[in-house]
Amino acid sequence: MKYFIKLFIVLASVFVIIGCASNKAVYHNDIIEFSATDIPEGILLTFNHIPKEAFRLSIQIIDEYSIPIFAEIIGFQLDYVKKSKQVICPFVQKGQKYIVGVFIDDGNQNNWKNIEITVNDVNGIYISNDITVNLINNQTGVRLSSSPIFSSEIEFAPQKYRFMVTVKKEEDIISSFSDMIGNSLTWNFIPKIIYDFTRTGIYRSGEFSAYVIVYCNVNYENISWTVEIAKSNEFTIYF
Question: Does residue 126 belong to any structural domain of this protein?
């Protein structure tokens, strides 16, 4: 399954801040109104308005190093947020600046709404060990050097890891491919690339640049979060 991550590149053209301090920002329009505040547990998102027709709420939080944390909230999790009006993301660190992006899908809208917040007074949850992504099997797969150790106890999702390989030709990204990999620390990505290329009718062969990002899926207060834990250097693949 293809999985595309949206990065927020040109902020000035896509977000409106109506109230802002070093540790609080607010966004609103006719579709959604929400604020982001730093609290001891992390970043608190408060939603003053979510359309009752909304069937998906996407949240992406990116730090100044472009490392993303994201959540796709649907079903019973979305029902929970509609009632509570709040979401807490604990996977942030003191002193860092974050861009918080929110997307409400009610069948009519197709835009991310973004605000910026600097986290000051928090004791968030972070990865406390160094993890590397190592190539294996003649650069047809990767292995994590170790499992992540978080600074506080967390609940892992049943599908603990998501591996994603991004394939490039020169400076152009051709596509990204990802798999959910239970508890395994290894992933053989070539079959996934060939399968998806063939299935979509754009199969290509040759020499390509690529890199792999590994995410960890965790649950916190009824919300499932996907947290980047490691990224490989760029390498060359052949298929």
Answer: no
Angle at 132 between CA 127 and CA 137, to 5 degrees: 145
The Cα–Cα gap between 137 and 172 comes to 26
* Strands laid side by side in the 141-144 sheet: 133-136, 141-144, 186-188
CB 109 within 8 A of CB 102: no
Question: What is d(CA 128, CA 110) in angstroms, rounded to the nearest whole number?
Answer: 36
The parent domain of residue 83 ranges over: 19-118
- State the total domains in the chain: 2
- Which pLDDT score, from 0 to 100, does residue 1 have? 37
Total-model pTM = 0.80
In a domain, 12, yes or no: no
Question: Which helix or strand (DSSP H or E) is residue 117 part of?
Answer: strand 113-118
Instruction: Identify the bridge partners of residue 237 per DSSP, sorted by sequence position.
Output: 208
Residue 227 lies in a domain: yes
- Residue 201 tokens read as 């009718």
